[in-house]
Design a protein that fits this description.
- The complex is a heterodimer.
- Helices cover 0% and strands 49% of the residues of chain A.
- By secondary structure, chain A is mainly beta.
- In chain A, a hairpin with a 4-residue loop joins strand 5 and strand 6.
- Chain A is globular and about 40 Å long.
- Chain A starts with 8 loop residues before the first strand and ends with a strand.
- Chain B is mostly beta strands.
- In chain B, strands 2, 4, 5, 6, 9, 10 and 11 form a seven-stranded mixed β-sheet that branches. A four-stranded antiparallel β-sheet of chain B has the order 1-3-8-7, with no helix packed on it.
- In chain B, strand 5 and strand 6 form a beta hairpin.
- The radius of gyration of chain B is 13 Å and the shape is globular.
- Classes of the chains: A mainly beta, B mainly beta.
- Chains A and B meet through strand 3, strand 4 and strand 8 of A and strand 5 and strand 10 of B.
């Protein structure tokens, strides 16, 4: 399974748009890209998933360039409650192999 | 709504004791995952079930760790002869369909402390 690389931490201010980029140079043809959010003392929560181009839901957008070697999670107008750790995960539809979360990106939103 | 439920929420055990951690996945979810999360780290994959079949257990750190899902719903992670390095949060997740790429629904974990 493809390994991912993300920035360890990011700072932002309330109301700003935040973009977190994940590198996955070894992504395979049938791999999907998934992002999770985790608050302290809670399990991760699914945010968004994509395969190519752009995906948008009520909380975020996911941009994936044509070569799919990276992806960017975009959070519009963040608030203090968006302070959390964000994980990028690459996985395919097979049933074997480890799922690698990595260390994630700690986003700190300031007032 | 009914999410993934894990029990106990906290567990303290003495080194050498056996522990059992329970996971109740979302009803009807085919896939079930166990992870270990150390403080300040991301979740580390332990094992994966599809219904009652354990398809991947490559992440289990030693033969002291054992997981089962006998009827394809509730799962138990057992750790025998616990050691201090087993102290961590153990997360369970389930997903509706087969495949590692399926979005997972996580419980809030069991925090295990080995004294």
């Amino acid at each position: 399974l493809a390994k991912t690389t993300q920035p360890i931490s990011m700072d932002s201010y309330e109301g700003q748009e935040v973009n977190i980029t994940c590198s996955h140079n070894n992504i395979a043809t049938n791999d999907y890209i998934t992002w999770y959010q985790q608050f302290p003392s809670q399990g991760p929560r699914f945010i968004i998933q994509g395969y190519k181009t752009k995906v948008t839901n009520e909380v975020a957008s996911l941009f994936i360039p044509a070569d799919r070697k990276s992806s960017t999670l975009s959070l519009p107008r963040v608030s203090l409650s968006d302070t959390a750790v964000y994980y990028c995960l690459v996985a395919n539809s097979s049933n074997t192999g480890k799922l690698i979360f990595g260390q994630g990106t700690t986003l700190q939103v300031k007032p | 709504g009914a999410g993934v439920s894990q029990s106990p929420r906290y567990k303290v055990a003495k080194r050498g004791q056996d522990v059992a951690l329970r996971c109740d996945p979302i009803s009807g979810h085919v896939s079930l995952f166990w992870y270990q999360q150390a403080l300040g780290q991301g979740p580390e994959f332990l094992t994966y079930f599809q219904n009652e079949a354990q398809l991947d257990k490559s992440g289990l750190p030693s033969d002291r760790f054992f997981a089962e899902r006998p009827e394809g719903s509730v799962s138990t992670l057992k750790i025998q002869r616990t050691q201090q390095e087993d102290s961590a949060v153990y997360l369970c997740a389930s997903s509706l369909n087969r495949g590692l790429h399926q979005p997972q629904h996580f419980g809030d974990g069991t925090r295990l402390s080995i004294l």
